[in-house]
Design brief:
644 residues; 23 helices; TIM Barrel; single chain; alpha/beta; 30 strands; six-stranded parallel β-sheet
């Protein structure tokens, strides 16, 4: 299988590195489609790398094969020599031409062998292109034949192999095809979707990806054929697509169309200089329309490439920032069809949950459906279980969990009966103790700023209750909040056991928010801006004693045990098992096969990905017997203040 390393992620969306014979491809990556005939390729491939930073390309091995002058050069100098391009080259096999014209004059075995002879970095199986709406028996026959061809190709080729995933809009066939591709391919190329994009059927495309994505192995690089318009990149990346290919930059240029992330605009309709990139500064868009046809086509193609490269960079930055959902939502406003696609994605939330991070730095709403993101759905599902048996809850005006605010909120009646309070937040009614927890604590929506809500006062909420309004309730709420955080993360039984350990919560003297959980002067848990209690090495020892195996654990393979014990990173290939309910970003106890505690860390990979990716980090160690890493910079605002 291919050598793919995951470097960063935001849910399914990921930044990775695929090694090829002509250098690595940093994903997500755009592979411009280049014509192998220089006379028909207005932007030379070498310029794609030098001027636009696009380091890999895709071309048609079938066109090369059927064009004797091109095939002669390719067989002599290789496809890189033919294209005069020294970066990674992926070659398509002629499946689209077979679909468009009804046949090709080459067999799958012949075209695969030809791709090998011309030295392509990534060869593609000649699959059977399945139209979205063909009868099921036709789609099934195409899938079966593609699997047969891919099996032959895997036997014949030692290098990187792209195996297309077909099946039309049939979910069962898509899953079957994806599972087969995972076992045979290095690049898992979701095909047969160009007609969906051309007809703006993004809701159907989302349903195809929902059916396909869970069966695509994490070790494979996901390629979505024909994702050429920048308005679609964020949508595709949300589903974990690693590679896009684009002939659209040139096709649109031939029609005089400028591409933007918000859509396409005819150059003849441009009356303002809408783009200030280096290309358009040199020749403003208002002047491009008046250029001679050939020069105009080149300038528009270059503009389209520049915009596409910039959008890929924006997707990569969003992955690093944890804002992929926000970017995809903003792009969905470009066209109602994309908005329909995003809604279909939301209805498939189950696909995103296994890799949905435990928290992000922020949660900002951008569209009406922002409140249905996987992070909110998971929170509400867990909240239902958390509240069971705790009620009844009474409603308070919004009260922040600060020292000043909590002084006047009673935790019990004069008779010692616990009072359960909830506050109304954009996601719904939330217990007071959990209002700092992601995504509630960092949830920004228009309701936060429009000033239209009358929230009332705490005193109004207490009317008719027999409570001590003069008592300072901060200590009681600190204990309640600590217990709630433990129950939220580890369950009620663990919370009851931890309550017997004499742990004390400490609040920030600046913000008044809970920031530490200690025993004596020893910190056992940090509480960051995400509102979650994360164990230090001491806290990990306590949890290890209380939590039953394998809860909150990642099991380290014997070869890596000495290194993890010393605080070294746990790599994916050295994971031997663990708690399958963990998610990326979660804290975990790292143990050996006999459940001896080695370290505490934070997950980079989801449990289902560990051991399958042969390169890269599975868990970043943050604490062990010989030392602790400091908490993340955003995990606190200032030193902790002991409660009174």
């Amino acid at each position: 299988m291919g050598d793919f390393e995951l470097l960063a992620r935001d849910g399914l969306a990921r930044i990775g590195r695929l090694s090829t014979p002509h250098g690595p491809i940093e994903t997500p990556a755009l592979l411009p489609v280049v014509h192998p005939d220089p006379a028909r390729q207005p932007v030379p491939p070498r310029e794609l790398r030098r001027r636009f930073g696009l380091g890999a390309v895709i071309t048609s091995s079938y066109i090369i094969w059927r064009t004797p002058p091109l095939s002669a050069v390719a067989e002599e100098r290789g496809v890189h020599g033919l294209l005069e391009f020294d970066g990674p080259v992926m070659t398509d096999s002629g499946a689209f031409q077979q679909h468009a014209y009804g046949h090709v004059e080459v067999t799958d075995e012949q075209i695969l062998a030809f791709q090998g002879r011309i030295g392509t970095d990534i060869a593609t199986v000649l699959d059977i292109f399945v139209e979205p709406d063909v009868p099921r028996e036709v789609a099934e026959a195409g899938v079966r034949e593609t699997i047969v061809r891919a099996t032959r190709a895997r036997t014949a080729r030692a290098g990187l192999l792209a195996v297309p995933v077909q099946g039309g809009v049939d979910a069962e066939l898509r899953r079957e095809s994806a599972a087969a591709a995972t076992g045979l391919g290095d690049i898992l190329a979701v095909g047969g979707v160009v007609p969906l994009m051309e007809r703006y059927r993004f809701a159907d495309l989302a349903r195809v990806l929902i059916a396909t994505r869970p069966a695509l192995g994490p070790e494979g690089v996901v390629h979505l054929f024909g994702t050429g318009h920048p308005m679609t990149f964020a949508f595709a990346a949300l589903f974990g697509v690693d590679l896009f290919d684009s002939s659209a930059y040139l096709k649109f240029a031939r029609r005089g169309m400028l591409m933007f992330p918000e859509g396409s605009v005819p150059v003849d309709g441009i009356h303002e200089n809408l783009c200030r990139c280096a290309l358009c500064e040199r020749i403003p868009l208002t002047e491009v329309a008046r250029l001679p046809p050939e020069e105009r086509e080149v300038r528009i193609a270059e503009h389209n490439l520049s915009v596409s490269a910039e959008e890929v960079a924006r997707v990569r930055q969003a992955i690093r920032d944890g804002t992929m959902w926000e970017l995809a939502e903003r792009r969905s406003t470009s066209h109602p069809a994309l908005a329909a696609g995003l809604r279909a994605a939301i209805r498939g939330t189950r696909v995103f949950l296994p890799t949905e991070p435990e928290s992000r730095r922020a949660f900002r709403t951008t569209v009406a459906t922002s409140g249905l993101r996987p992070a909110v759905i998971r929170f509400l599902t867990r909240l239902e279980a958390f509240k069971a048996g705790r009620g009844p809850y009474r409603t308070l005006p919004f009260v922040p969990l600060t020292t000043l605010a909590l002084r006047e909120v009673p935790a019990e009646t004069r008779d010692g009966v616990p009072l359960h309070w909830e506050v109304v937040r954009p996601v719904g009614a939330v217990p007071l103790e959990l209002t700092d927890v992601y995504p509630v604590g960092c949830y920004l929506s228009p309701e936060e700023f429009d000033g239209s809500r009358r929230t009332g006062s705490v005193r109004e909420a207490l009317e008719g209750l027999a409570v001590d309004v003069e008592r300072d309730w901060v200590d009681a709420w600190t204990r309640r909040q600590v217990d709630a955080l433990f129950a939220w993360r580890y369950g009620p039984d663990a919370a009851r056991a931890l309550a017997e350990e004499n742990l004390v919560g400490r609040r920030s003297p600046k913000s008044g928010r809970l920031r530490r959980i200690e025993h004596g002067t020893t910190i056992h848990f940090h509480v960051g801006s995400e509102g979650l209690a994360r164990p230090t090495w001491k806290g990990a020892q306590l949890l290890h004693r209380i939590l039953p195996y394998p809860q909150s654990r990642v099991v380290v393979a014997p070869d890596a045990v000495p290194f993890v014990r010393q605080g070294r990173t746990l790599f994916s290939r050295f994971v031997a098992g663990g708690d399958g309910s963990l998610v990326p970003g979660a804290s975990a106890l790292l143990v050996d096969a006999s459940d001896e505690l080695l370290a505490v860390g934070r997950l980079v990979l989801a449990p289902g990905e560990m051991g399958r990716l042969m390169r890269g980090t599975a868990v970043r160690v943050v604490g062990h017997a010989k030392g602790e890493e400091p908490p993340d910079p955003d995990d606190g605002d200032d030193p902790a203040l002991p409660t009174r």
